[in-house]
Design a protein that fits this description.
By secondary structure, the protein is α/β, with parallel strands linked by helices. 35% of the residues lie in helices and 15% in strands. α1 packs parallel to α4.
């Protein structure tokens, strides 16, 4: 119990330190690469995101996924990147090369497609080097540059709103 509390505190402290040091240098260029992070247990429709990227006029190689699963042993057979709570040490540092690869890639847009306030998801969102971060959760407004307050199951609304706002921001 003590280690779980200590781990939660260190994860939250890491998130706060990362967000304080983040420099928001928005580039107004068109979207070419998209990263998507989500909670696999709550939502995992990859085809929706692939169709969305296709509607934006981008190829499937311009999108990268990473998702949180319950436990490492529950990892689905897929080519996409997965992580779990075991992918972090007790100080909140990632132990997985997949996490490092995802967070260091400079996406034009990062979509944090989760509502749950899980520290591991928030840490990866905070660590991401993405230029513009879009999220569904408003639990910590520092995490995202733009928040759409909808449920993950409302994919049609998300698609309409995302397209509308990215067009208004001259990103599409």
């Amino acid at each position: 119990m003590f280690f779980k509390q200590l781990r939660s505190l260190t994860l939250q402290k890491n998130i706060t330190l990362i967000l304080k040091s983040r420099v928001k240098d928005f580039k107004s260029s068109k979207v070419k690469t998209i990263g998507v992070i989500f909670d696999y247990e709550a939502y995992h429709d990859y085809d929706f995101f692939r169709a969305l990227v296709n509607d934006f006029g981008l190829g499937y190689n311009n999108i990268q996924f990473i998702s949180m699963i319950g436990m490492e042993k529950d990892k689905p057979n897929s080519w996409d990147a997965f992580f779990s709570k075991e992918s972090f040490d007790w100080l909140g540092r990632p132990k997985s090369a997949e996490i490092d690869e995802f967070t260091y890639k400079p996406f034009d847009v990062l979509i944090s497609y989760y509502k749950s306030n899980k520290l591991e998801l928030n840490l990866i969102t905070a660590r991401s080097k993405a230029n513009f971060k879009i999220g569904l959760s408003n639990d910590d407004p520092r995490l995202h540059d733009f928040t759409l307050d909808i449920e993950p199951k409302d994919t049609d609304i998300f698609k309409i709103e995302l397209t509308k706002y990215l067009t208004q921001l001259n990103r599409l």
